[in-house]
Amino acid sequence: MSYENLLISDREAVRTITVNRPDKLNALNRRTLSELDRAMTEAGRDEKVRVVVLTGSGEKAFVAGADIAEIREQTAVEARAFSAIGQDLMSRIQGSGKPVVAAINGFALGGGMELALSCHLRIASSKARLGLPEIKLGIMPGFGGTQRLLRLVGTTRALEMALTGEPIQAGRAEQLGIVNRVVEPDALEPTVGELAGQLAKAAPEAVRGILQAVNQGAESDLQTGLALETARFALCCSTEDMKEGTSAFLEKRTPTFRGR
Ligand code: COA
Fold this sequence. Notes:
Blueprint: E1 6-11, E2 14-19, H1 30-45, E3 51-56, E4 61-63, H2 68-72, H3 76-94, E5 100-104, E6 107-109, H4 111-118, E7 121-125, E8 129-131, H5 145-164, E9 168-169, H6 170-175, E10 181-183, H7 188-201, H8 204-217, H9 222-236, H10 240-250
Parallel strand pairs: 2-3, 3-5, 4-6, 5-7, 6-8, 7-10
Antiparallel strand pairs: 1-2, 8-9
Helix pairs in contact: 1-3, 3-4, 8-9
The structure holds coenzyme A.
The site of coenzyme A (COA) has 16 residues, from helix 2 and strand 6.
């Protein structure tokens, strides 16, 4: 499948999707949102792909937000549809049964921060800046940012970031638990590659179970979350990969998980 605004590359079981509009700092226009949606569907369906990495092209930006030029021309009805399209994409990423890692190589602003927040793990370059600057445009986040940031850092920090619109440095984002790790710019690609490679070797049923239990558990009461955990645990125990993992431990060797 060809894309106008995305680059797709595979390295073993890791698919990297790069938003590729560097002259617009990878801003998410409608076309790019729709291509990302298609690329996530393809990655989900492709059995060879076990992990997805999302990043931005060029030196400066991960994604500098939704496309402001497009937003400016929208009617309220179109804006509602635009928000729904963005929210659906972010929910699809968060709900993916394959881990999605954001490699935040620069500005992650507005829709770019929302995109990063929908990923399961976030590794940032020390030069990255993250923020929700929509307030400065007279609007507010519309791709899930108010909700995902709130759940990640609580009302105090979420309100501060959304109401002031001031971006924060990568190190601060790590302190707040918004990103998992910050590395030097040159180390971003190898660090993410190593992490993604590690995730790609894990048993897929266990990975899917953890993603679902944590994501849905975060939105459920404890009993519901625990019941989900039990069901997914039992499912893992029905796999050949469970036999392989436990046998490998007892035989003191490295397991090879085949996704069966
Ligand atoms: N939507 C559309 N175009 C965007 C964009 C966005 N979100 N962010 C950057 N661009 C475009 C600029 O208009 C400019 O295009 P041009 O060369 O045709 O004029 C190009 O990308 C480069 O951006 P520029 O502002 O010149 O780079 P900079 O280094 O001076 O500043 C930022 C970088 C990220 C601080 C600045 O681009 C910015 O504030 N972007 C908007 C962030 C934002 O508000 N996002 C939320 C959107 S809802």
